[in-house]
Predict the 3D structure of the following.
Amino acid sequence: MSEAAARIRGLYLITPDWRDTVKLLLAAKAALEGGAKVLQYRNKVVSAGQRLEHALALSALCNKFGATFIINDHLDLALEVDADGVHLGGEDGDLRAARKKLGGGKLLGASCYNRLELARAAQEAGADHIAFGSIYASPSKPSAVRASLDLFGQASSLGLPMVAIGGITADNAPPVVAAGAHALAVISDIFDAPDIGARARRFSALFH
């Protein structure tokens, strides 16, 4: 496992579709203070200009906390803000081409849904971490396919960090960690929490 890929560990924040920059930064800061190790910027509703504004501010925040900063979908934006890497879904671009543009020092994550063969193909294409899900019913993607926890054991031989995503809460997370997930990707259970920092600490404690 590469030194860079080893940074995919613990609580993996994914940002909600918020437009308010100040609200987003305050929530992200609270979660990072609570021990989140990775933050992926994902926003499907803002303009390209605001996406750049968000990404630059979140990148600086992650640098302050020593957290890994990933951009969802937008490879060019990841390069523009010098993010630590990019995450691509099945329809978000060619992994081999992305690996070539990123170079060797950046992270490339790939969504593998509920399919082990996609994980193998992603590794061959240059991905250095993979994501399986939806683990549970997901409020942000209610129609997402469901992934079995058995996948983490089956994919462990690949030697890649494995991210679990989809409907994960502090209450239902322990079996996911026990199944072999290296990181837990969370949106709603963190960003909708009444005390974001406290909720992040609950997740972070699962990895200590």
Observations:
- Residues 5-205 form a domain with the TIM Barrel fold (CATH 3.20.20.70).
- Residues 48-65 form the longest helix (18 residues).
- The chain has one domain: 5-205.
- Residues 39 and 195 are 18 Å apart (CA to CA).
